Amino acid sequence: MFCNTVRRNVSRANILHRCKSTLVIAEHNNEALNPITLNTMAAAKKIGGDVTVLVAGTKCGPASETVAKVEGVAKVLVAENAAFKGFTPESLTPLVLAAQNQFKFTHILAGATAFGKNLLPRLAAKLDVSPISEIIDVKSEDTFVRTIYAGNAILTLRSKDPVKVITVRGTNFAPVAASGGSAKTENAPSGDFANSLSEFVSQELTKSDRPELTSAKVIVSGGRGLKSGDNFKLLYDLADKFGAAVGASRAAVDAGYVPNDLQIGQTGKIVAPELYIAVGISGAIQHLAGMKDSKTIVAINKDPEAPIFQVADVGLVADLFKAVPELTQKL
Amino acid sequence: MARVLVGVKRVIDYAVKVRVKPDKTGVVTDGVKHSMNPFDEIAVEEAVKMKEKKLASEVIAVSVGPTQSQEIIRTALAMGADRGIHVEVSGKDYDLLQPIHVSKILSKLALDEKADLVILGKQAIDDDSNQTAQMTAAMLDWPQGTFCNKVEKGDAGLTIVREIDGGLETIKTKLPAVLSADLRLNTPRYATLPNIMKAKKKPLKKIAPKDLGVDTAARIEIVSVVDPPVRQAGAVVPDVDALVAKLKEGGHV
């Protein structure tokens, strides 16, 4: 309303400046909202302006109901369609483009997860804009901060593109409150989103009762020093004492000790828990990239020269096969 | 029989500890060891394996970058690629080159070379963008198989196992398609000396983005590149009891 009033008097550039509007693409699994959506909304809030959330899937009820209650959401767009089975980017991209054509958002955001990383660059290419990956801070509506070189340099960049397409590193933005909002819900633009290019077949998800890695308060992580998959039991026992998630270095994943989705690092997951306990992990650059923003880092390693000790708040130079069971027992 | 285009990038070697320039414009690259982006080695290996299985007829390695990028193309040729294309971009233009520019170049080349498959690494370890494959697929309107853990060719297209946050996912795509390689797709081979010698004789064409009609005008401005905050040095404790005490002190137990 305000924008329409001033439109007559001010130049178009100023209008765009004043009327920021952000679309956040919700991530969910047809059953529940992925919590990173709340961290992504925190980045949207920092940009300023209205926040619209798009929920697309084969079953949008649970996620859209959750999103409508989130603080600061102006509107929820719902697109429930069999075409979105498996959340394929080939079907979702035309949907987001249709929403963009109708509402002319200045910013389009998603969490920097496998889902967000898969979808947003495809969308950005269709909009002919250069996407901005995994931001860790918002300086202004066009200036963002991200890490490069495995977190060993911090780049602040100004985007010259008219629409900013951005993925957000969840661990750098505290989630917005999941209550206190009462957004209106409406249907997203309709269209034929059937996708003939790709087809979702199946998923094999790692079953676990433990907290999800990227949002866990405590993580116990193992590396090559564990020597076998069976020995990871030592870490599970320790993790039980904290209600912690269990992670791994690339070496442990490559050696087949644990599945790939536990990998923490530059090319795996980025985590920043309250407490990170690295066991039998040397601390290669690529691993540090994924965990060095943890509040407290504890390292247990028998090699006093291991680089992990350079970032650890508390280090114990000891044989993990003796120290870990002893620690578990004493806690 | 498919023709495969593989993208390879020259980056600072993964084992090098990078140094930020004092003027905050970037990181020091002069005199620093460079090599092929590790994910691109995996992409090349997958393409060469396809050729060995007679699923691919020809493997074309492409690199966008300064003159030294030709060394990386030669490495791909030594691993088994048939010919190379070097799209030369250097200096300030290269500093501001983004995946959007590279994907425009790659999509144009994919059409010009009549490729059926484009295989790229999932991300370059310097800019950590993880965008180029997805954007190339979008520009071509081809399906994308990102973060590939396994790729199999069937009659109608590809069956791809992808690495996702909670585990693995299987999708089917039609051909032509764009793939991005994750770390566990394969183990890249080492180029042998005879193959390195042979690679010197393989054709390598040099072109410029404008030959392909691609505009490389900057999409971003670098405000600053700085060092990350340094963590305070911690304490080494003598035994498990002291570690437990520290955890209690920190309120963790």
From TrEMBL, chain A:
Its cofactor is FAD. GO terms for cellular component: electron transfer flavoprotein complex; mitochondrial matrix. The keyword Transport applies. Binds 1 FAD per dimer. InterPro entries: DHS-like_NAD/FAD-binding_dom, ETF_a/b_N, ETF_a/FixB, ETF_alpha_N, ETF_asu_C, ETF_asu_C_CS, Rossmann-like_a/b/a_fold. Its main location: mitochondrion. CDD domains: ETF_alpha (cd01715). One of its GO terms (molecular function) is electron transfer activity. It is found in: Mitochondrion matrix. FAD binds at residues 224, 249-250, 263-267, 280-287, 301. It holds the Pfam family ETF_alpha. It comes from the Eukaryota. Residues 22-204 form the Electron transfer flavoprotein alpha/beta-subunit N-terminal domain. GO terms for biological process: fatty acid beta-oxidation using acyl-CoA dehydrogenase. SMART domains: ETF. Belongs to the ETF alpha-subunit/FixB family. Heterodimer of an alpha and a beta subunit. The electron transfer flavoprotein serves as a specific electron acceptor for several dehydrogenases, including five acyl-CoA dehydrogenases, glutaryl-CoA and sarcosine dehydrogenase. It transfers the electrons to the main mitochondrial respiratory chain via ETF-ubiquinone oxidoreductase (ETF dehydrogenase). This is Electron transfer flavoprotein subunit alpha.
UniProtKB/TrEMBL annotation, chain B:
It comes from the Eukaryota. This is Electron transfer flavoprotein subunit beta. It is found in: Mitochondrion matrix. GO terms for biological process: amino acid catabolic process; fatty acid beta-oxidation using acyl-CoA dehydrogenase. It holds the Pfam family ETF. Keywords: Electron transport, Mitochondrion, Transport. InterPro entries: ET-Flavoprotein_bsu_CS (IPR000049), ETF_a/b_N (IPR014730), ETF_b (IPR012255), ETF_beta_N (IPR033948), Rossmann-like_a/b/a_fold (IPR014729). The keyword Chaperone does not apply. GO terms for molecular function: electron transfer activity.
